[in-house]
Amino acid sequence: MQNVINALRVLEEVAARQPVGVGEVARGLGLPKSTVQRSLKTLHEAGWIRPAGGEVTRWQVTSKALQIARRTELGLRDAAMPVMEELRQRTGETIHLMVPEGDAVVLIERLETDKPLRIVLPLGIRLPLHASANGKAVLAHLGGLLEDLPGYTDTTITDAGALRAELEAVRARGYADNRGEWRSDIAAVAAAVLGPDGPIASLSVSTPASRMPEELRAEYGKLVTQAARTLTDSLG
């Protein structure tokens, strides 16, 4: 079992530092070079890593991890679509499905409103964790806080203490909201989809800022929280 754990740790270290040599990985993980070398050999034989630029002294990950991630994403999309459609019918607004990736959330699916005034975000766009409803919904269930909090609008939370209080409020009510914190013309509410080890995605209701008064914000917040719980349950 320890060999498997070591190999996974080495894979994560290579992904974070690539291209990287055995010595750098060993120092980063605090493991003996011989242990790291065995793990690298195993990962290479299994197709998870390859020599960087043809040099067997430095390694980088292959597309295998990405292929598996895409399959996982497809499963998430399949489970989410009926939940998203019901949420769109109940709100009449655009519904987003995002997944956490590093210091951001990435849009992987959307169902758009039929209303003529809408804000369309492209699939694959990255939104900051601290300045978006989807991001804060995820961040509320992660350990630690971000150190760098850049401002995007006048309402972006850039103070660590204020963000900590905001995330406590998110956990208390079950959903996060965005009051023009990334773009001043966008409002949203979002809730996290949770797995055994933390947030795996988030669902949101997104509208032009002019179309989300306080009473609707609270109503949509309850609906998106229910939808995220339904998706969490369907994923097991």
CATH superfamily of the largest domain: GAF domain
Strand tally is: 9
Order of helices and strands: HEHHEEHEEEHHEEEH
Tell me the distance between the termini: 25 Å
The CATH class assignment of the largest domain is: Alpha Beta
Structural class: alpha+beta
Task: Assign a percent range to the helix content.
Answer: 40-55%
Low-confidence segments: none
Seen as an oligomer or otherwise, the chain set is single chain
Query: Strand fraction band?
Result: 15-25%
Radius of gyration over alpha carbons?
20 Å
Give the biggest sheet. 6 strands, antiparallel
Domain IclR-ED: 64-236
GO molecular function: DNA binding; DNA-binding transcription factor activity
InterPro entries: GAF-like_dom_sf, HTH_MetabolicPath_Reg, Tscrpt_reg_IclR_C, Tscrpt_reg_IclR_N, WH-like_DNA-bd_sf, WH_DNA-bd_sf
Protein name: IclR family transcriptional regulator, acetate operon repressor
Salient structural properties:
elongated, alpha+beta, 236 residues, 7 helices, three-stranded antiparallel beta sheet, six-stranded antiparallel beta sheet, Beta-Lactamase
